[in-house]
Every structure is written in structure tokens, then in C-alpha cells.
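User: C-alpha cells for this one?
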Amino acid sequence: MNKFVFIILQAALQMAGSTSLRFIKPNVVALEVSDLSSFEVLLHCGEQYKGEEIYWERNGESISETGNPITVTIDGLHGGNFTCHRPNRDLLNYTLLLVHPFEFPKGGVLIQSSDRELISCTARNYNGQFHCSWKWHQERIQRAVVYFTAIRNSSPINCTLDSDISGLTCIDKDYCQYSEESRSINLTLFVRNLYRLEEHHRTFLIRNIVKPDKVSITKIQDDVFEWHPTETWSFPCSFFPLSYEVKVVPINHSCDYTGSRVEKNETNETHYKVKLKKAYTFCVRAQDSLTKKVWSDWSHHHQRKHRHTSEK
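Assistant:
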């Protein structure tokens, strides 16, 4: 029934000539506008209800327009959820009408993350699973994810929305970690606040978003440190090699410190002897040594004069 109703709605809007219409998913449509003028839109309840006495509500409140079809006015970003009913209040159908100001700057609903992207994607290894996340604008409190899809080579990838609606967890079951990755993943995300719709895209290869988990420091003896990749990393390491950045910073500073008295090295080894005699923090992080794209988060160990503490 929904598909049939949509065909009628599309024809009605084209006849009205109000603005371009885009179908997002069943019962959800977007008016794509270049400014925030007023537009008149023709809505049908459904051909199967032709000739019946039809009443309408907009966002749960009755409106004066009756019948099938009706003309409604959309002002600016004030879209709405339009429902049609019989006189006894039985619900017959609905259309969620959103406004997509496509020539406006993006970011009104989402904001950039630390990597200056509106959508950030990472993979922990090469098993075909990845996670994409976004940050909602703190003032957008009536926000929702409208629709999402991830596609590679015209084939959909299975994705599920995180419970906090701030990310997607996806698994490409056709991905082979031992072969060359030749085609990109195309992610599309539609989000809204109230009735304003935003469309966002991200295109990437898994090899370019792989971020190893923090390494595990497993042995400490005097000023000698050893570490190992976490169990989440792809094995064997001979096929998925990691390189490491080792950093020694003053005890009261974080691993991102770049000031004086910093000891820094890159290595393919998994052990290191610190030369510094004063109290310090030993830091190590990993990256895929072939792609050299994304570093893991730091693991660190605090070396004090009389006691040793570590965080993996």
C-alpha cells in the first residue's frame, strides 16, 4: 500500500510544481529547497479512500483541510507528520514530510569531530567489520536518524544503528582480508532535527580506516618494556605487520606532549629500553606498517622512583 500511495503523492507534487520531492523511505519524503520560502504541497491519503470523508492531522493536531487530496503550506523548515483519518478517528495513512535545504552549509544537525569529519569511520582489523560515528549538535534535542545505507560494488552491507543513535556497526560479509581491496564503501546517512533533514556521505576503503586497538604492555623489568598486539588485531602478523611509535615523556605529561626532554622512536620491534634516569611515562602506539594511515591510541606506563604502575 505504501508504494502505491507514494506514486500518487509524487504525481500530485509534480502537478503542483511546488519544489522537488525526494523519497527517502516508505512514508518519508523530503522537499529539497534552495531557500526557506513557503511552498504548497498536495497530499493524498490514498487512492483506495477516494470519495470517503477524510480528516487530517498535522503533528497530532487537527487541521482545517479535509478530503482526499488536500493542499498544505510548508513554511521554511516547518515540515510535519501528516496523518489522515476516518470520522471515527481510525488512522488510514501518514506521510512524514521533511525539508532538506540542500544549498545550506552542512553541520546544523551534526558537528565535526576531532578529525574534522562529520562522519568518522574506523576498523579494528581486516575482518570486514567497521564502525562509523557522528556527533550531534548539542542544541539539537529532537534529533533522529531517518535512513542509512552502506554499499560496495552495488551490494548492500549489513549495518545496525547503535543504541545511542550516534553510530553504525557494519560488517561486509563479502570482504576478503587476504585480497586486494579495489572498490570503495559508500555510506549515506540521513539525519533530522524536528523536520529539517541533512544528508551526509562518506566514501572509504577498509585499509584506509584500520585503527589497531591499544597494544598490551605485558612485561616490565627495570627500564625494559615489551608489548604485544591485542587479540583483536588480524593474524598472522607476518601478513598484517604492525609498526610502533615509542615515546618517553616527563612523568607529569601525557603521551601527546611534544616539549623538551622527549625521547621518541619508530620501530618494528616489540621491546625497548629507556635511557632516561628520571621519572617518566613510557608510551607506545601501533599502526599498520603497510598502509601507515591511522595510529592506535597510546598505551602508557608511569615509571616513578620507588614504584611502577602501568595502563594498557
